[in-house]
Amino acid sequence: VSALDAAEARADLNAFLHIDRDLTLAQAHAADKLLASGQDAPALAGVPIAHKDVFVTRGWRSTAGSKMLANYVSPFDATVVERLHEAGAVSLGKLNCDEFAMGSGNENSAFGPARNPWDTSTIPGGSSGGSAAAVAAGLVMAATGTDTGGSVRQPAALCGVSGIKPTYGTVSRFGMIAYGSSLDQAGPIARHAQDLLDILDPISGFDPRDSTSLEHCNGSANVPGRIRSQYEQALQAQEAGGSLPLKGLRIGVPKEFVNDKLDADVAKAVQAALQAFEALGAVRVEVSLPRTELSIPTYYVIAPAEASSNLSRYDGVRYGHRAAQYGDLAEMTSRSRTEAFGPEVLRRIMVGTYVLSHGYYDAYYLQAQRVRHMIADDFQRAFADHCDVIMGPVTPTTAKHIGDNREDPVAEWLADIYTLGVSLAGLPAMSVPCGFGGAQGRLPIGLQIIGNYFHEGQLLAVAHRYQ
Ligand code: GLN
């Protein structure tokens, strides 16, 4: 009850879109009973969490931040939701996000922007902005998010909390409202590595209901427990290092990440973090990711292409908003879509249908797919020849003021430069707080830690040493 009260008391953050006290209290009572029964209670029994509104939930509405789904209630739970429920976690409700997860600031939500608890005149980052804001404000122990091109890492960075996007295929996308299906991955946002592990481990694992869910990760079965045991092994190895627990860890620092887009305070905080890792025994090596700049046009062809296809299902017939007045069937569909989709979503649909259309497909979509492979190869070369993990900034700046990017949507796309490559390559990556900057030096900055495929446990162990 007190967690619900606290969540309601912070309505100013606009982090929660739907709270239903009865639903939450029913879950809490069930968890209480288990805890009182004396039997082995599930690991997360009674722990307050909340879900980004792109995970469908029985009971609570699932809007994906869109007017299109303003009244949609799913008849089933997403796999992520189901697994956390089974682990005993209690959901306080559904969290604000950019419409269909399209954005980096949470300003594209049909229900208004969420706000950053560190300074409520600034954005929390996006698209999982409500998730990061709720964790940063202490309203939940952890929240689920999704990351297509940075949407877990960016809001975590801007709100001074931690977030991890696992390797593509590790967590089931079943029941996650689709944006770019070849990129979308669920990941938790929480305070630190240990809490991330407690959420990521149980939600990971093969799911026959998602055809891109993996049965195996580098030879070991994709099951809950895999990430935890990798994490524990890595911690044990670190113990052997004594006062230099990270001795031998090679940290690749991409030279392309230091560019004119990077603010001085962010660069400084990242440098300080790298020095802290060196003090723990790690060594720094320069690596090159030569197609870093190309990740922006590549992503902004592929993601809208997939989005235009995924969003074609919102036609006003099967579900979603239907216009009140229309002549024929075609007009009903076009009116419904025009009325219910926001400007950023319409922009993406237009870009997406254009790059997939006859005559342009080869020039844009196919070309982008080729560059996507080259971007993935660049990461593999760095890992094979030079380093164990890659580190750098998450965002080029601290949180902007709400409204700053209103005139220029492309400015927001450009700020994704540090996160898109990882998503195109399908690699795991996390964000951990590494300092403060901005006008009065009071806004959080995040450090990005990128690992090779299926190294989630190792990433979390490295982050744990630093935190
Ligand atoms: N900013 C990127 C976009 O708008 C990434 C969003 C995301 O990861 N969901 O597409």
TrEMBL record:
<keyword id="KW-0648">Protein biosynthesis</keyword>
<dbReference type="GO" id="GO:0030956">
    <property type="term" value="C:glutamyl-tRNA(Gln) amidotransferase complex"/>
</dbReference>
<feature type="active site" description="Acyl-ester intermediate">
    <location>
        <position position="151"/>
    </location>
</feature>
<dbReference type="GO" id="GO:0006412">
    <property type="term" value="P:translation"/>
</dbReference>
<comment type="subunit">
    <text>Heterotrimer of A, B and C subunits.</text>
</comment>
<keyword id="KW-0067">ATP-binding</keyword>
<comment type="similarity">
    <text>Belongs to the amidase family. GatA subfamily.</text>
</comment>
<dbReference type="InterPro" id="IPR004412">
    <property type="entry name" value="GatA"/>
</dbReference>
<feature type="domain" description="Amidase">
    <location>
        <begin position="4"/>
        <end position="460"/>
    </location>
</feature>
<dbReference type="InterPro" id="IPR036928">
    <property type="entry name" value="AS_sf"/>
</dbReference>
<keyword id="KW-0547">Nucleotide-binding</keyword>
<dbReference type="InterPro" id="IPR023631">
    <property type="entry name" value="Amidase_dom"/>
</dbReference>
<dbReference type="GO" id="GO:0005524">
    <property type="term" value="F:ATP binding"/>
</dbReference>
<dbReference type="GO" id="GO:0016740">
    <property type="term" value="F:transferase activity"/>
</dbReference>
<dbReference type="InterPro" id="IPR020556">
    <property type="entry name" value="Amidase_CS"/>
</dbReference>
<dbReference type="Pfam" id="PF01425">
    <property type="entry name" value="Amidase"/>
</dbReference>
<comment type="function">
    <text>Allows the formation of correctly charged Gln-tRNA(Gln) through the transamidation of misacylated Glu-tRNA(Gln) in organisms which lack glutaminyl-tRNA synthetase. The reaction takes place in the presence of glutamine and ATP through an activated gamma-phospho-Glu-tRNA(Gln).</text>
</comment>
<feature type="active site" description="Charge relay system">
    <location>
        <position position="127"/>
    </location>
</feature>
<dbReference type="InterPro" id="IPR000120">
    <property type="entry name" value="Amidase"/>
</dbReference>
<dbReference type="GO" id="GO:0050567">
    <property type="term" value="F:glutaminyl-tRNA synthase (glutamine-hydrolyzing) activity"/>
</dbReference>
<feature type="active site" description="Charge relay system">
    <location>
        <position position="52"/>
    </location>
</feature>
<protein>
    <recommendedName>
        <fullName>Glutamyl-tRNA(Gln) amidotransferase subunit A</fullName>
        <ecNumber>6.3.5.7</ecNumber>
    </recommendedName>
</protein>
<keyword id="KW-0808">Transferase</keyword>
<keyword id="KW-0436">Ligase</keyword>
